[in-house]
């Protein structure tokens, strides 16, 4: 089980407070619409705006921005469409307001940094950046910016939830294989390896590991149903999405290395 210091929680509070303070200067307002969620021209001035912009860049171009931290050939935007601004497409809208929260897998209260660390460990099959690094702070700043106006300790809006109740029977993997060939292979390739820089691998050594959210069939099914194929999102039925997800998840992928130690670099007291 991963353990992090109280300092990590403090960083989460400070990161969110900085954005909340700026929003407070503008007066209370509801969360922005998806179309208005991110506009580089409307970012706060100075270092805060630069940090938000860095966070967006990391989400959109993770492979380039986080070399050495990711082993999967994925960008965050593969699962968080348009940088996390698409409803039912891995939206970040309001996400910062959901933390701190209890996490069943970790059996403890986690911060937004902890949740981001999970993404690096599972979905990226890599390692998380230091909690005090400009990259981690940038990700927190970006997600907090997209969450401006959301009440603290709120819960995800139904419009953002993409998990659907699954059919009672097991997925029809043979049917899923046919659907994959017809609807998915043009982007993700017949061997599931994807196309570097364009379409993520869905299985194999360079894909997400078996602990990732997308390795759970309920999450993949809902995501596929609402967002795939990219040429015709929402065209697949629940059963079709369930079957093709079952086919994808029937393939081998990296195994999560749960015993790996995750350490944060010590910093001198005057850093704080």
Key terms for this structure?
Cytochrome Bc1 Complex, Chain D, domain 2, 39% helix, mainly alpha, two-stranded antiparallel ribbon, 272 residues, 2 strands, 9 helices, 2 domains
Provide a descriptive summary of the structure in words:
By secondary structure, the protein is mostly helical. The chain folds into two domains: 6-160, Orthogonal Bundle (Cytochrome Bc1 Complex, Chain D, domain 2); 173-249, Cytochrome c-like domain (Cytochrome Bc1 Complex, Chain D, domain 2), CATH 1.10.760.10. It has nine helices and two strands, in the order ααααββααααα. Strand 1 and strand 2 form a beta hairpin. Helix 2 (46-60) crosses helix 6 and helix 7 packs across helix 9 (238-249). Mean pLDDT is 89; it is low at 1-29.
Output the number of helix runs: 9
As a percent range, the share of helical residues equals 25-40%
Instruction: Calculate the terminal CA-CA distance, rounded to whole Å.
Output: 27 Å
Kindly state the mean pLDDT as a whole number? 89
Tell me the number of structural domains: 2
Number of strands: 2
Poorly predicted regions = 1-29
Secondary structure class reads mainly alpha
Percent of residues in β-strands: under 5%
Q: What is the 3D form?
A: globular
Major sheet: arrangement of strands: 1-2
Radius of gyration: 19 Å
Which CATH class of the largest domain? Mainly Alpha
Main sheet: strands, sense, barrel: 2 strands, antiparallel
CATH architecture of the largest domain: Orthogonal Bundle
Q: Would you identify the CATH H-level superfamily of the largest domain?
A: Cytochrome c-like domain
- The CATH topology label of the largest domain is Cytochrome Bc1 Complex, Chain D, domain 2
**What is the N-to-C order of secondary-structure elements (H for helix, E for strand)?**
HHHHEEHHHHH
């Amino acid at each position: 089980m991963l353990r992090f210091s109280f300092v990590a929680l403090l960083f989460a509070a400070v990161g969110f407070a900085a954005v909340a303070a700026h929003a407070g200067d503008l007066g209370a307002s509801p969360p922005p619409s998806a179309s208005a969620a991110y506009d580089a021209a409307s970012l706060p001035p100075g270092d805060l705006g630069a940090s938000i912009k860095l966070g967006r860049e990391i989400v959109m171009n993770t492979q380039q921005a986080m070399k050495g931290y990711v082993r999967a050939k994925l960008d965050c935007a593969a699962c968080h469409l348009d940088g996390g601004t698409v409803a039912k497409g891995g939206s970040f809208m309001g996400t910062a307001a959901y933390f701190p929260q209890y996490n069943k897998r970790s059996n403890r209260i986690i911060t937004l940094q902890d949740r981001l660390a999970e993404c690096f460990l599972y979905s990226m099959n890599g390692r998380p950046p230091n909690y005090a690094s400009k990259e981690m702070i940038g990700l927190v700043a970006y997600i907090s910016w997209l969450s401006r106006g959301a009440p603290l300790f709120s819960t995800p809006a139904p419009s953002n939830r993409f998990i659907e109740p699954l059919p009672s029977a097991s997925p029809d993997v043979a049917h899923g294989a046919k659907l994959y060939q017809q609807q998915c292979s043009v982007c993700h390739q017949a061997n599931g390896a994807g196309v570097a820089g364009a379409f993520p691998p869905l299985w194999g050594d360079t894909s997400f590991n078996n602990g990732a959210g997308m390795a759970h069939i309920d999450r993949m099914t809902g995501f596929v149903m609402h967002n795939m194929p990219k040429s015709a999102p929402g065209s697949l039925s629940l059963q079709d999405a369930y079957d093709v997800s079952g086919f994808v998840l029937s393939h081998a992928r990296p195994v999560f290395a749960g015993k790996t130690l995750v350490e944060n670099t010590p910093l001198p007291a005057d850093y704080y």
